[in-house]
Design a protein that fits this description.
Layout: E1 12-18, H1 24-38, E2 43-47, H2 53-63, H3 72-96, E3 100-104, H4 107-117, H5 122-133, E4 140-145, H6 148-164, H7 179-195, E5 200-204, H8 209-223
Parallel strand pairs: 1-3, 1-4, 2-3, 4-5
Helix pairs in contact: 1-8, 2-3, 3-4, 3-5, 4-5, 4-7
The structure holds ligand Z5A.
Residues 20-26, 47-49, 79, 104-105, 109-110, 113-114, 154-155, 158, 172, 174-175, 208-209, 212 line the site of ligand Z5A.
Length: 239
């Protein structure tokens, strides 16, 4: 799939993918602020699993590990159930209204987590994706790539800080998987990027947050130049 250039009447759908602690949430916040200032379009930030009240309820069950005993296919179906509601109630209406949707994880996470790392048949996941996602494919997918040990160390450091601040403790269902699982995830995301270079861009997430932000701005300006059409001069400003 090729990233679409800007056009009237339809928003733009940008997804962020990668392993734990790669910096997706951090970079979504930063890109959202940049696009709000520069694109002249409303920007919605959201996440998967979740993003709508019904999908957030499914998220809670998934991350608590309640579906794990039922196996990866049941988990994949629950991720899909959450995605259907998220698409119907938030993503598609926002895109139809011409908004920019920035989503923290999407269907590539199902391919990587339940497929490559979880052992589900890729053909089965492709069929599910066709039914669930249909034509609502991302215009651009930013794959934040770093060594899983670095990402997990960041996630652990954030957890300790959260615990010190009195928030809920402990790794979730997927953070608790062994390092080999996370290495398979990394390889899976890189394979997706290699298979769909028109849609995906790999960003080195081991760099500082500022350097990653600058790299993401460059990719977005190159791949989706129409986003900045209403604000001449915005392209050169990556600082
Ligand atoms: N999942 C699935 O299995 N199938 C699916 O179809 C979908 C999802 C959609 C959702 O968890 C889980 O669901 C996920 C996959 C599975 N697995 N897990 N776990 P989540 O939403 O809770 O977690 P996550 O998506 O993995 O996000 P995360 O762990 O919160 O990481 P992140 O968003 O990429 O990173 P961050 O929060 O921006 O940064 C983490 C920390 O590092 C934080 O303290 C930052 O300040 C710091 N940070 C960020 N960037 C940097 C840089 N560049 N340098 C240094 N420090 C940094």
């Amino acid at each position: 799939m090729t990233a679409r250039a800007g056009g009237a009447g339809r928003g733009r759908f940008i997804t962020f993918e990668g392993g734990e602690g790669a910096g997706k949430s951090t970079q979504i916040r930063r890109l959202a602020a940049h696009l709000r200032a520069r694109s002249g379009r409303p920007v919605v930030t959201t996440r998967e699993p979740g993003g709508s009240p019904r999908a957030e309820a499914i998220r809670e069950a998934l991350l608590a590990g309640l579906a794990k005993p039922h196996g990866p296919f049941a988990e994949a179906l629950l991720f899909c159930a959450a995605r259907i509601d998220h698409l119907d109630t938030l993503i598609r209406p926002a895109l139809a209204a011409g908004e920019i949707v920035l989503c923290d994880r999407f269907a590539d996470s199902t391919r990587a987590y339940q497929g490559a790392a979880g052992g589900l048949d890729p053909a089965l996941l492709t069929s599910l994706e066709e039914v669930v996602v249909g034509q609502t494919r991302p215009d651009l997918t930013l794959i934040l790539d770093c060594d899983p040990e670095l990402g997990l160390a960041r996630a652990r450091a954030r957890q300790s800080a959260d615990e010190t601040a009195g928030a809920a403790a402990g790794p979730d269902r997927f953070e608790a998987e062994a390092l080999a699982f996370h290495a398979r995830l990394r390889a899976a995301f890189l394979a997706i990027a290699a298979a769909e270079p028109g849609r995906c861009a790999v960003v080195n997430a081991a760099l500082s947050a500022d350097a990653v932000e600058a790299a993401i701005r460059t990719v977005v300006a190159e791949r989706l130049p129409g986003l900045f059409a209403e604000t001449p001069g915005a392209h050169g400003d990556a600082a």
